[in-house]
């Protein structure tokens, strides 16, 4: 039996682990596993050699590649705090070893870990799997790292040939999880790239921030950054701290930035015109989740009509869970006169939540305003760039203060943390096709997906503190909503549609985001070769008017994660975003994580082991 795994990032390593754990339960006498990646174990995102300043947005104690209960399992937090991590890092042949050792010494359960450290953990985890394989005479592992898979072809018996350069590797079954990848350029990107080449400007396409060449950007230049999510923070870090600047703590939850003089002036913007919400200081145990009260699977099923829940009903249930948590935290923090348990009982039972909240006679600014949460600058009169800076700084300071209270204390950021706990509940709706196709395309896949990233996928609070300090230092300026960018007068120029006469000229334009994992526009040779040969296709969605559009996901059977029409081909992870939800996440230990369950199911399918209760909402 030969199985191929394309992609050695976290999902590929999870699959390798599950194949090893399940092999003895299969009927196969021997197993050869071919593991392919254009980088090394951990993949491209989690490479060890990257700036130590680039950090994750999940606490260390909520990350693990081991299955729950697995022998000798260590979460990222446990590994970092053990001598094992230091011994392993010392064994690495890398020139940033001292940085890694210094960083790992500072990590506790609630630390937000440098991505380079997570990369070292991935490599250590892989080493443990290699040791297990060496102890098993019936399993062989063939590693193909730092090599590109150029082609995937199916042969007559439904097996496959994976080609790397001039070498072909036949496998009986194949699973791929490619992680972040390149997409074909849009017309806008092609135009901007050509303009940059014509006028000797710097244009950075979407991709990994640590890999971008920023050497052409000098201190006397203006840099335009489009996008204010995680990649925005990464690029800002590279253009400031990594150029010799540093922050000092003022002792009052604020920072001061000390410039090196090598920083450019950064103008950042987006459609929304507001940086992502910060992540709270974690107060949760590694296995602690807030269960849904309203968006439960049972409640969703009660709202089904003709097998579907309306997007409005779904959104109401989700909002009620956020508001329930918000007011619980708010009353505990600021209103000792209110019995929180009594409030929670009434909030669960009432049909008129607005009336109940009104009965507490709260100040207007304490009433949860969903529209204000989604658009923090709504109603703010924006007349100039400088005027807008003050508005953003005020909002950032409020959110930082809330986030620093902690994930079980801060009303706003603590309640938004609930969105992470609700991921499986959202996955249940998505992967069981409980939206109508019209609601899925017109309401979920568009604005809602963007809103969820804005609310729940931001960087740790320290990043917001840094942005605030950089704004105070005049190095970072935030552009108002509805950012517009074009090339003109031999420069990139940008403005907010809210004050269109104030034009900013830039010498560099950075697209601060990774590529969306959209099957149809992928430029990854694994995807393109399989599309060209008819092995995979995007998941089709037929709307009520007869129009068919493509989901971003590969078309798979949700009960098995097999590619439709291909009994021996499986995929999971980012290649299924749009069918599943937040498919880039690393599993969380101790909570029966659906990613771990799905990995076990797929491994059993690859090994021809029956799966009694498949995970269909990972």
From TrEMBL:
Stretches assigned to the FAD-dependent urate hydroxylase HpyO/Asp monooxygenase CreE-like FAD/NAD(P)-binding domain: 5-180
InterPro entries: FAD/NAD-bd_sf (IPR036188), HpyO/CreE_NAD-binding (IPR038732), L-asp_N-monooxygenase_NS-form (IPR052189)
Domain of life: Bacteria
Entries under SUPFAM superfamilies matching the protein: FAD/NAD(P)-binding domain
Pfam families: NAD_binding_9 (PF13454)
Protein name: FAD/NAD(P)-binding protein
UniProt source species: Apilactobacillus nanyangensis
Organism phylogeny: Bacteria, Bacillati, Bacillota, Bacilli, Lactobacillales
